[in-house]
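Worked example 3 (structure in, sequence out).
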């Protein structure tokens, strides 16, 4: 169980670091991005472990990766500039 938590945290940290490295212009400060990835991965591992039970390491880690990616995607800002005019003009 402890190994599963450690691996899930490493997965979340790795995904957050990769996102912060590849998309620095679309994400907030790295101080927010890295803990968000770790927290998302730990929550995903917890949810998957609760749903599937003991003895399912690979699905738990897959759930950790999915939740970490989903939580990091919530931090993304739009790529382009938003237009200031209305569509009805």
């Amino acid at each position: 169980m402890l190994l599963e938590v450690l691996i899930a945290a490493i997965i979340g940290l790795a995904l957050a670091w990769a996102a912060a490295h590849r998309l620095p212009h679309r994400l907030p400060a790295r101080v927010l991005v890295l803990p968000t990835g770790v927290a998302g991965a730990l929550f995903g591992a917890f949810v998957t472990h609760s749903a599937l039970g003991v003895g399912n390491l690979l699905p738990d880690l897959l759930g950790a990766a999915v939740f970490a990616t989903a939580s990091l995607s919530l931090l993304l800002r739009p790529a382009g500039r938003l237009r200031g005019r209305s569509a009805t003009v």
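Notes: Helices lie at 2-22, 30-52, 57-73. Residues 2-13+26-73 form one domain.
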